[in-house]
Amino acid sequence: MLCWLREEEMSLQEFQQRVGCFITHVDEIMQQEIRPLLAVDIIEQLHRQFALLSGGRGKDGAPIITFPEYSGFGDLLDEDFQNVVTYLTSIPSLDAASIGFVIIIDRRRDKWSSVKASLTRIAGAFPGNLQLVLVLRPSRFFQRAVADIGMKLHRDDFKMKVPIVMLNSLSDLHGYVDKGQLTCELGGNLEYCHSQWIHHRTAIENFAVTVKTTAQMLQKFGTDLSETELPNDVQYTKDLLTTHTEKHDKLKDELKLAVQQGTTLLGCIKEQAAKSENHKLNPDEMENQTTVERLLAQLDETENAFQQFWSKHYLKLEQCLQLRHFEHDFREVKVSLDSLMDTLTFLSDIGDCVTRVEMLLNDLNTLEEKAQESLEKAQLHALHGDQLIQSNHYAVDSIRPKCVELRRICDNFTNEAKKKYDILSKSNQIHKGIDKVRCITEEAPHPYISDRKDTGLLEKLFA
């Protein structure tokens, strides 16, 4: 039994390790180390739309972050700006982010002061690698002239180690970035809906949280199971089996809901590509799809690991219940057999006359008939124990001695009953012979019997 428990502990340890790896993989998939914030944490700031990650890429695959026209840009709190930019730079894959980001600042309807404020903020707070900064300068003649002079005077103040390119028009912008990677506001044909982008981001992150939380629930459930002591009676074991099964079924439902959530989300993302034959998912949307697929795969692996562990635990509880039933029935059968053996032991095998001997034989026959049911039950119970042993029950060392004990008592009873029967049968014959001799002797007229009469007496005695 101890060996079996060690095996069970090892299976629990393996399960905990696997679930722990799944949780780590979820964090890696969601890049938790570099993304301390979730969309829901900064949902209000994201809705302001002062910075966008539309999914476009530069010519070498660099992610593009756009700062569209936003009248309240100068009034943004530093914390709000920092949180949004940090969040946006954490979304592209590490490979894409390592190339460096292309920044597009659209200030065509604004003033030089806004351009300067934007560049200053980006230079001081942008958390990612910069590759290129493209600025659509103010379109009004005076502001454009001021912007040109301002850039010459303050370029070094921005402390950027990457080129800052001032652009006069969208045509100039298209010389640096392909139209297919720009939204319609920038003269491109990249489809982008900010509200849908926020919805997808929150849905993906909610799903990741669900996957992680579900895995943690499974991990805790496994720990609780391992710390549960097996009951010593039938009813408590039944109750424990029912309780654990209910918890398992509840967790299975949670897993199903999580899978449904992920499957629905994946369908929504793929639906974008199905809008038209020519539409293709942009790199960010492709990464979203890959993220959800990986999370679903992790969820599937977690479910498989949990089911394997549960199967072992459920088998343990079932075998525990079998053992408690076996022990309970063993005690009942043992009490019955011990009582029969006591009765048999106290049944005398000595009688002083035929009547007494026949009475003892009758009592013995009655006892054997009475014992037949208990003996059969004991043999069947021992056979049931053999079946448990053959099924690789964990408590073989406890079951086998009880089977041996039952068969030993049955054999002892049978042998002892046969021994008493043989003794009483012989005693009965002797007493009957004595009675015959006595009867013949009483019929004789003289104590001395002639040879002829003596021969007749012997013939009658042994007739």
Automatic annotation (TrEMBL):
Residues 94-194 form the CRAL-TRIO domain. GO terms for cellular component: cytoplasm. SUPFAM superfamilies: CRAL/TRIO domain (SSF52087), Spectrin repeat (SSF46966). Keywords: Guanine-nucleotide releasing factor. One of its GO terms (molecular function) is guanyl-nucleotide exchange factor activity. It holds the Pfam family CRAL_TRIO_2. The keyword NAD does not apply. InterPro entries: CRAL-TRIO_dom, CRAL-TRIO_dom_sf, RhoGEF_Guanine_NuclExch_SF, Spectrin/alpha-actinin. SMART domains: SEC14, SPEC. This is CRAL-TRIO domain-containing protein. It comes from Oncorhynchus mykiss (Rainbow trout).
